[in-house]
Design brief:
mainly beta, Neuraminidase, eight-stranded mixed sheet, four-stranded antiparallel sheet, 1 helix, 3% helix, disordered N terminus
Length: 258
């Protein structure tokens, strides 16, 4: 999602479902912690909306009207190697790379853009209803979040909806699913305005557990906005996370807390 933390407290308080901002999710579900492996530089001006690491390349999508872009980034240095800006009327959201294409959602414009993943040359666009939040894929379908408790599975060629699942924890729906990443058969989803990632069964929408990332960036750090951005390096079995306007990107290993 795309409202800067602190600018719309009332909106944030009404949209959180399942557990409150900065607080813990239900204790009856498995909670995973993390071990910090390495920290990398990250552009502190990047309002991170989407992140993906594929074939040795880090891709990032950023938001805010007039500042939205898709990028190819050097993981080691944080330098932007290639960038394509979108029109100021669009608020960029989640991205994903599938085959030769890079897909980008927009927040409230109801349009998704498709680019050549290498050149960033525009290829086509699709219309959709509702808001666009996060985007990933399972190798066959695009998977999209829209701020509700539902995830949509879309045809990557036509953008037609193939199916959808209702995401729930112990029978209670969880909304505000933000940036998405497909990791070892599960969908990892940032829960907007919290420091948690939900681990979701793509077949049923059931939440298998949560990842607690509190403490990764100090809460009183003036550069800190909300956690948002998950990328998985499948070949190297590495997991990366960052946040909106964060000056660092972190490689972590998950540990079971309870």
């Amino acid at each position: 999602m795309s409202v800067i933390a602190g600018l719309s407290v009332a909106l944030a308080s009404t949209r959180i479902v399942g557990f409150a901002p900065r607080q813990a999710p239900p204790a009856t579900l498995p909670i995973y912690g993390y071990t910090l492996v390495r920290s990398y530089p990250h552009d502190p001006g990047a309002f991170t909306q989407g992140l993906q690491y594929v074939d040795g390349v880090l891709y990032e999508g950023t938001g805010l009207n007039g500042r939205s872009s898709i990028r190819r980034v050097n993981l080691e240095t944080g330098n932007v190697l290639k960038q394509h800006n979108i029109g100021s009327q669009y608020f960029g959201e989640g991205i994903t790379v599938l085959g030769a294409d890079l897909y980008e959602l927009t927040w409230q414009s109801g349009i998704a853009f498709v680019y050549d993943r290498n050149t960033f040359a525009p290829r086509k666009s699709f219309k959709y209803t509702g808001e666009g939040w996060g985007l990933t894929h399972d190798g066959t379908s695009l998977i999209m979040s829209d701020g509700t408790e539902f995830l949509r599975f879309l045809d990557p060629v036509t953008f037609a909806e193939r199916r959808r699942v209702r995401v729930a924890a112990l029978g209670q729906p969880l909304k505000n699913l933000n940036e998405l990443e497909f990791v070892k058969g599960e969908i990892f989803a940032n829960v907007w305005m919290t420091d948690y990632i939900a681990r979701i069964d793509p077949a049923t929408g059931r939440i298998n557990g949560y990842v607690d990332l509190r403490g990764l960036m100090p809460a009183n750090d003036p550069s800190r906005d909300v956690l948002n951005g998950i990328a998985y390096d499948a070949s190297g079995d590495r997991l990366f996370v960052t946040g909106k306007l964060w000056p660092r990107l972190f490689e972590i290993k998950l540990t079971l807390k309870q």
